[in-house]
Amino acid sequence: MSSTLDDDVTRDPSPPGRGSGPRSAGPILLLVLLLAVVGGLLSRGTSAPQPATAPDEVFSAERAAAAAAPLVQEPRPVGTEANAAAHDHLAEQLAGAGFEVTSSEGIGRRTAEGTGSAGYVRNLVATRPGSDPTGTLVLATHIDSVPHAPGAADAGVGLAVILETVRALGPEALRNDLVILLVDGEEPGLLGAQAYVDGAGEELRAPVVVLNHEARGISGRPLVARTAGPMHETLPAMPRPEYESFTDALFGVIPNDTDFTVYRDEGGWWGLDVALIGEAWAYHSPQDDAEHLDPGSLQHYGELTLSLTRELGAQDLAALEDPGEDRPVQTTMPWGILVMPPWLVQGLGLAAPLALAATAAVLRRRGRLTLLGTSFGALLALLAIALAGAAGYGLWSATAAASPDILSQAMKEPVVALPFLGAELLAGATVMAAAWLLGRLLIGRDALLAGTGMLALLLIAAVAVLSPAFASSMVLPAAAAGIGILLGTLLPPVPSLVVRAAALLPTGWLVGTQVHALGEFGIASSVGALAATTALALAAAAPLLIAPQGEASGTARRPHRLLIPVLPAVLAIGLAIGGIALTRAAGEPVQERVVAAVDAETGHTRWESDGVTEWGRSLDGTEGTSVVEGPQVEVEPAGEGTTSTRIRLTSARPGAEFRMELAEGEFSGVTVDGEPLSDDGSAGAQGLRTLRIVGVPAGHEVVIEAEVPDGASMEVVETVYSPALADGWVAPGSGVSLVQPRVEISRTVTL
């Protein structure tokens, strides 16, 4: 007697040529799945760039790039001359387009995670009143970039899109008020957006709908990352619309942030947060320039904004109803965006495993599988899905550790990501193949497929019930798979095959679109998730490969088949090695980050580098004595009748950036130039360990008042992004790209 978990079968009795069996239907179903995957992959392309000769009413990537070209020639951090020049150039262009243009200077203030930030910002607002306004449409982005990055994408792409959109709209007023909001100080902490919302933003005609433009990459399909309010009624106006509630939910748990957070949470505005995310290796680096920005992505971004602007500009915004907590769940289908109430997502999620359970009961009565064998298949599937993700993560981690020179500094992405993404998928395939072959040594094919599907469908159902938004993209393929196998089991062979093939289409589409989208996120950002997501989706559809008619399938006692996973494993390693070679041959400089720590009192200087290049390693650890003026700090009591301390800071450099950190205790009741760090005073109540002041004009005296522990030690650091100021600096060659190199000049004072 064979010792298997499926005690009702001892061999694989499937005879060749059985029309209803898996050997005839299997290749057909796999071909359908493959074609659907390819369709999903091809669906996520970008628009063909339109030339400058395109009709006036059409968005042109060439015209947009030309309009933004003067703005993205050099970095424009908050408080710098380049920032002011960009501001003035934008004001001139918008005034020429017939807008009423105003500039507002102020201090943006925000607090988060024990740090209080304040910045001297200069926002630009251009307004065109509506002909019969029912609300306000705001096209928003930010002017500033990080130091040492021209910011052609972040957020120069937003500037280009908005300028060309305004041109394409022409001089005629829309129905609703149109506001162009170009804020300052986004990079150091959303400071300009906060200043506007706290001030002039309160005067906008409600409801306010904002289209916020962002980028953390230089290519790819513009991603609607977040929404607020009843935008599900407007999204279909986009060309080739695409949106997943999953990304909105995911944004709530990742560390990234944009001005949209301020507009939604502080201003109460409705709208969309849109971004480019492809090729994030250039993010916050000198390579974020006009030469690297993909014109197809710019074209697609512009078409999206122009179409939504025309739609929202003409719409009765007052008639839109905010869904509040009952926000619908949305997912992208081949024909457009599908909108579902949360209860329907939960119901479909639960229906899938229930349908598969009914199928398993029918097959068990037919003697096709056992409860024990199916349970073992589910356990094996759980391990396989987890290990598939772990294999992808481990392979990339090993690759990155072995070749740090191929990684960008901000996002740790390689210039050429595709081979590494393929390697992760192959690593996951290696695990899944090994699990399948191991399972076939112990249980029958039907039990293994049923158990695999049951585990995956139960996982998706749990997510759908707990957080419908997170299940937005997977619930329909899961429901199609569960219901499809139940119907296929009850139908005759030919209709069964048709039903099962149709039920596979949503899974194939999902895999194709998800692989493409996660690929745009990048290998470092989605590592492990790509393999695990693909494995989960395929596992959920696995029961569709069960041949409903015929005899039970037994175990496959062919241990030599365990060598099969060697092929994808070898290919995965080969792709990783090839990816390293392709990245090094791509012609892009190696990114390096360096910092010089300078003692303001003694001038003692010590350099630190990530050391991924020979130049960086030679600089790392070197010391010297710098002759550089440090931050001027004065400390005094705030005055009679108060226990506050007054701290005065000045710098001779424009756009100064200060950081103050207490060795122990907290700042509370903080004001900057007489303005509380938070309008509601909550910052002082919470207590802060660190204060940041950015964009300080040269020679301006910053006056900070705060409650601090008596006699506490405070370190004051002024950050300067000109490494040549520090002793020991040696400029790198053309093969090295410096990512925000900085000099930190510090002094310690007693409060």
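Second entry:
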Amino acid sequence: MTTSQSAPPTGAPPTHPRAFEPVTLVVSALLAVLGSVIGLVLITTLGIAPNTSVIGALLAMLIGRISVAGLRKMRDQHRQNLVQSAVSGSTFAAANSLITPIAVPFLIGRPDLVWTMLLGAVIGLAVDSWVLFRVYDSRLFPATSAWPAGIAAAETIKAGDEGGKKAAVLGVGAVVGFVGAMFKLPTSAAGVAFLGNIWALLMFGVGLLVAQYVPTAFDYDLGANYVPHGVMIGAGLVALVQAGLMMRDRSAKKQAAAERQDGRFDADFRTVDARRLRRGLIEGMALFVVGAIVVAVGGGLAADMGGFALVGWVLLAGVAALVHQLIVGLAAMHSGWFPAFAVTLIFLILGLVLSIPMIPLALLVGYCACTGPAFADVGFDFKAGWLLRKDAVPWKPYEMAGRRQQYLSQLVGFAVAIVIVAIAWKPFFSDGRVPPVAQVYVDTIKAGLTDTHAITMMLLWAIPGVLIQLLGGSKRQMGVLLATGLLVATPQAGWLVLAALAVRFGYTRWRRSQAATKEEADAAAETADNDLALVGAGLIAGSSVHDVGQIYKAV
């Protein structure tokens, strides 16, 4: 256990703080209001949804220094983890999962469908988080993967609790990340490169560089020729097949043998087996279809579509929601970036190819857009909690209890976000403040497809996506990460990713060269990874603080 206040007496079983403890609940709800407002203002003005996990953790630390009304309990790092889960959940829910989807029917000229779309978005948000809760730490979404924003949140909390050298390194990294972001450098990209799978991040960096330089060097518009979309379609299809293969039970015996008898943490042990992974995804698919039925009935789609077409729309919406969350989740898990906008655009183009009428297509796009970001955000927060709980004994019961309390805290943040969006959407939209991505969706729907160019190019570029994803396998997700880089297309991010990977390679190689034996070399490599992870966490934390600070521009 840590030095936090929740550490039990010697010999007593550990008890994780609860999300609904009065102090924790009140602090979580109040800060979730702040997170929701920040998310709404920034997504409708600057078009960004900042990660407020670090902000939530820092505010919880400060509150823990107040010695009145039981607020000292917030010095406990596990309570801080619950609060940051609620705050980040409220931000992403308000900005990505709620306000963006409901802006689509509003901009299409059907404000009467906003409430229907909001109901569908709430269902999508609930299912999105539920599925991640069910499948986190499985072979498909292992806790040992990067989940970069989660590492940043955990290291921030630990540094605040422990101080010393760790706090100094994290602080220096945060300052560098903040200053770099001030100069428009995506320093979080460099931070991510210190944390994740090297091959996956290498492809992410290559995708970023191609997106930045190919259009000018070769006078070839990647977006107009649907290159990123095609690569993502090919890689995504292979990733779905790989996900299906992971749901088999062939590793069940090995999984059971990996759990240590003394109850201590073992990185080789996963808390979710293939059976639960399979059930979680099947449940998610069924619930997404139920949500699609609600949207179809509430939106009066029967008037625009025949019986068979309506059934097809419902099934397509359910499948699109599930696929969208899986692709976005995989990208976020490895790179910390989730291309939700671009993946939604793929399904929008598919809807145009299928000649879906305007209103049903707008609702399909809105329903698809509400999934993915919350899925990724819950994964980030679970990663933070997983890192903070690793020293508990017995580990598994404490980990599962803590994960459940984090999920409940996320629900608190979601509930706050739903209320805020329900109150704020009318004045925001009336004032012309809508998410820019929603306007892009609507413009694309109204423009339609004039020829078969889009589908032809996407099918063509799906081929390299398939090949690269097959080459990298399910653990590296190289095809998905290449497509993510192409879709994100953030200037200079590719250079920062590759530079950080070079530093990572050189530093690890240098540390290993100082060792005399193979065992010492392996230990040195692990130490190097830990050092660089702390630097990467600081860069991400500093960049996140800068993004939240942009609220002054928006207001």
